[in-house]
Amino acid sequence: MKKSLLSILIAGLFSTPALAFEPFAVKDIRVEGIQRTEAGTVFGYLPVKVGETLTDEKAAQSIKALFATGFFKDVRIEVEKDVMVVVVQERPAIATINFVGLKEFDKDVIVKALKETGIADGRIFDRALPSRNSSVSI
User: Fold this and answer.
1) Which of 11, 40, 71, 128 is deepest in the core (most CB within 10 A)?
2) What residue numbers bound the domain in which 35 lies?
3) Could you tell me if residue 33 is inside a domain?
């Protein structure tokens, strides 16, 4: 008996939708967690605007759209009354690239090659970039 009750509880936990709320008209949108990214950038990618109805489907589309930018490593949609709260965690950015002890190679050539692979000052750092291009390793 205990085993079947535990199975039902576990199944119930995993069957609950991640975004479960009643659709509502969005009176405001608030963005939390941004440090480098402008709020306007986040608003520009959202498929939901103030005055529209937020549904589970539109919330999921919003999360997918923000993840697709590559700027964020975590995105959540929360609801506080009639306010859509977009909570993000930005990916780390590359502040500067420095070379120590570089004697055999031209720094400008290396910087250009890194930039062509997506690694440059001010860009969002993606750990997968070096592995996509076998000629670069970190």
Assistant:
1) 71
2) 18-90
3) yes
Do 85 and 109 sit in the same domain of this protein? no
d(C-alpha 88, C-alpha 72), whole Å: 6
Closest by CA position to 75, among listed 83, 93, 63: 63
Closest CA to 72 of 131, 125, 28: 125
Encoded tokens for 130:
């070096």
pLDDT for 74-124, tens place per residue? 999 999 999 999 999 988 777 777 778 877 888 788 778 777 777 766 666
Residue with the two structure tokens 């440059």: 120
**137 plus 116 within the same structural domain:** yes
Instruction: Check which CATH number belongs to the domain holding 57 and give it.
Output: 3.10.20.310
- Assessment of whether the complete model's pTM goes beyond 0.85: no
